[in-house]
Write a structure and sequence with these properties.
Oligomer: single chain
Largest sheet: 5 strands, antiparallel
Keywords: Membrane, Transmembrane, Transmembrane helix
Structural class: alpha+beta
Strand order of the largest sheet: 5-6-7-8-9
Radius of gyration: 22 Å
Number of helices: 2
Distance between the termini: 79 Å
Length: 168
């Protein structure tokens, strides 16, 4: 009887350890690919006052971020299925710029948006592929700047990727 109690306590301890380990690991892996709950500050429009981008704090691959300008103007953007990027970030670039970065193993896409009349429009997209196929592989780095459509910041980045092939 006493041995059964000890075995049950050990089993419960092991189950608790496994549960906590799984929880910690899943939290870390989600946090590595998400802007959920983050706030980015910078000069996001054409004046010299610091603005911010604030993202919801939820543990789902899709969430909302709100761009809040000092003037009171705000714009909601939706991050859809963020799990497509193992490395995802939103940053302020030069004055009036917002920069999105989306990377997966060996590849990185960076989208540059410039502020104009209460919206941000894509003006540059860079794509880097690291050399991973042996010593003769040079990888690639491409910059796309002339788009066939005017893409606003609330456009789906997957659609932008399709359009970049039409760049001049």
């Amino acid at each position: 009887m006493q041995c059964e109690l000890i075995v049950n306590k050990v089993n419960q301890s092991c189950k608790l350890f496994v549960f906590i380990s799984c929880y910690v690991f899943s939290s870390i892996s989600f946090a590595a690919s998400s802007m959920s709950g983050m706030t980015v500050k910078g000069y996001l429009d054409d004046n010299d006052v610091i603005d911010k981008i604030q993202c919801e704090n939820i543990s789902k691959p899709s969430y909302n971020c709100v761009i809040k300008l000092d003037s009171g103007f705000s714009k909601k953007i939706v991050v859809k299925n963020n799990n497509d990027c193992s490395d995802f970030s939103i940053n302020s670039g030069d004055k009036g710029d917002i920069v999105f970065s989306c990377g997966v193993w060996g590849e990185n896409d960076v989208y540059y948006y410039k502020y104009s009349q209460n919206n941000w429009y894509l003006y540059k997209h860079t794509r880097e592929v690291l050399p991973m196929n042996g010593p003769n592989d040079l990888g690639s780095f491409n910059t796309y700047e002339n788009f066939s459509k005017k893409w606003s910041i609330d456009s789906d980045l997957k659609d932008v990727n399709k359009d970049r092939e039409k760049c001049k």
